[in-house]
Design goal:
By secondary structure, the chain is mostly helical. 67% of the residues lie in helices and 0% in strands.
């Protein structure tokens, strides 16, 4: 259904709600790939890639223009989403690094009893 086909506000809202549910599914799918990216990155510094973000935003603006969407709406929406996913990726990266580090070993107390003989 197209927006122009809706005859009532209720119909419009129902269609918007339908689209929102699709968007959430797509964002969740994107999140799975972001989680995987955090797993593949070797260094925390690799999480934020300003050149990649700039390229994504440029592509989004071009696509928005082709589809008749105000480019600023698309750009700001994606900026917000990317910022939240970058924060999420940092958390995932940090969580994974914590799992990798072995627990610190407590020093052994000195043994009681016989003293060790020095080696000859």
């Amino acid at each position: 259904m197209k927006a122009k086909d809706c005859k009532t506000l209720a119909e419009l809202r129902a269609e918007i709600d339908r689209i929102d549910r699709k968007l959430v599914r797509l964002i969740a799918e994107r999140g799975g790939f972001v989680r995987r990216a955090a797993e593949l990155k070797a260094k925390r510094a690799d999480v934020l890639d300003p050149a990649r973000i700039a390229a994504i935003l440029a592509d989004i603006k071009r696509e928005a223009e082709k589809l008749g969407l105000e480019p600023e709406v698309a750009e700001e929406t994606f900026r917000a989403m990317i910022a939240r996913f970058v924060a999420y990726e940092y958390r995932e990266f940090d969580r994974r690094q914590k799992k990798k580090k072995p627990a610190a070993r407590k020093p052994r107390p000195p043994s009681k009893g016989r003293a060790k003989r020095p080696k000859a």
